[in-house]
Design a protein that fits this description.
With about 240 residues, the chain is an all-alpha fold. About 70% of the residues lie in helices and about 0% in strands. It folds into two domains: about 15-205, no CATH class; about 205-240, no CATH class.
């Protein structure tokens, strides 16, 4: 009976939870208990879950004696995809939240439906907003480049370099996420001004005044005609005489 394959003592996946820090924490920050921040937390925990799942797959590959596959499962592509998905999901949650606030403000201001639809976040604005959320990932990208280089050394036995690179990427991912949350708060403040502008909208009064003045002028003119103070045009003469 063949003996089971054991994970190499020289190659191992480090515990990433401590380095992921806030990303792996289920807690909400004080003052961030709104529905939006609850959804942002869910995105954060999904990001942590993706990383932990990749780490689990890497450990299974090591158990099977395949360090190259382990390095691939926790390679730059896995981290980049998880981060991109988290940014996209967070961006969509923020856009949906802002659109909800804009719609409520439009309803309070009694803005006509066609005009109310025009105040929603456009597709271009949504893409720009999401890009701003990812603005703190520069150091993460550099760390991922280092990980890509370190992954090539796993089979040569330079595993300490790979482990250190993994832990560094985890720390940079946490920093990028914290920056993302800062940008979320900034977007809420920025769009809050637009929400208040929509809420302060008032229907223009000049059309009503124009119609009122026109009706008043017409009534005055007809009164003068019927009272005999003005000579009626030939077209209206039968009406006046009647």
């Amino acid at each position: 009976m063949p003996s089971p394959v054991h994970r190499s003592a020289e190659v191992d996946v480090p515990e990433l939870g401590p380095s992921l820090g806030r990303i792996a924490s289920p807690a909400l920050d004080a003052g961030r208990s709104s529905d939006l921040w609850v959804k942002i937390r869910d995105v954060r925990l999904a990001l942590a879950g993706s990383i932990f799942q990749a780490a689990h797959g890497a450990r299974r590959s090591l158990d099977a004696g395949d360090p190259q596959d382990a390095a691939s499962r926790l390679g730059r592509g896995s981290w980049s995809a998880a981060w991109a998905q988290a940014v996209s999901a967070a961006g969509q949650q923020v856009v949906d939240h802002i659109n909800g606030r804009l719609a409520l403000a439009a309803a309070e201001a009694r803005i006509p439906q066609r005009r109310a639809q025009a105040v929603e976040v456009t597709e271009v604005e949504a893409h720009a907003l999401t890009a701003r959320l990812a603005g703190g990932a520069a150091q993460l990208v550099l760390a991922l480049d280092e990980l890509a280089a370190a992954s090539e050394t796993v089979e040569t036995g330079a595993t300490a370099v790979w482990r250190d690179a993994l832990l560094k990427v985890a720390r940079r991912l946490e920093a990028a996420w914290i920056e993302l949350e800062v940008h979320v708060a900034e977007e809420l403040e920025r769009w809050g001004e637009e929400v208040e502008r929509v809420r302060a909208w008032r229907r223009p009064r000049w059309p009503l005044w124009t119609i009122t003045l026109a009706a008043l002028a017409l009534a005055t003119y007809l009164g003068l005609l019927l009272g005999g103070y003005l000579r009626a045009p030939a077209l209206l003469q039968p009406v006046v005489e009647w």
